[in-house]
């Protein structure tokens, strides 16, 4: 078998593989990314009326990896975290 015939055979195999993989990729992407994530803000809130502290008691010692604070529409809000 010469080099040209081998190249054509491998090129055809690559095109055939791509024609199989690309539609599968598109179908999987549509299924995987449909309605991914939440599109609304949290429904519960706490209204602060002054400088009153908030304490969260988990009942035992808990190591947190992180915390998220949502400050929606109130630019003058500050907070401190004590451990």
Overview of this protein structure:
This protein is mainly alpha-helical and about 80 residues long. About 35% of the residues lie in helices and about 0% in strands. It contains one helix and no strands. It has one helix spanning about 5-35. The model has no long low-confidence stretch (mean pLDDT about 75).
In short:
The chain has 83 residues and is mostly helical. It has 1 helix and no strands. Helix content is 37%, strand content 0%.
What features would you highlight for this structure?
83 residues; mainly alpha; 1 helix
Strand content: under 5%
Radius of gyration: 28 Å
**SSE string, helix = H, strand = E?**
H
Uncertain residue ranges: none
Q: By helix and strand content, what is the structural category?
A: mainly alpha
Shape: elongated
Number of strands: 0
Helicity, as a percent range: 25-40%
Distance between the termini: 74 Å
Please give the count of helices: 1
Largest sheet: none
Average pLDDT figure: 76
SSE blueprint and pairings:
Layout: H1 3-33
């Amino acid at each position: 078998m010469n080099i040209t015939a081998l190249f054509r055979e491998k090129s055809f195999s690559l095109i055939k593989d791509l024609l199989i993989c690309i539609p599968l990729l598109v179908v999987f992407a549509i299924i995987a990314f449909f309605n991914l994530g939440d599109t609304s803000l949290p429904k519960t809130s706490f209204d602060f009326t002054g400088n009153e502290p908030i304490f969260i008691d988990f009942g035992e010692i808990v190591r947190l990896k992180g915390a998220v604070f949502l400050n929606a529409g109130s630019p003058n809000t500050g907070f401190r975290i004590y451990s």
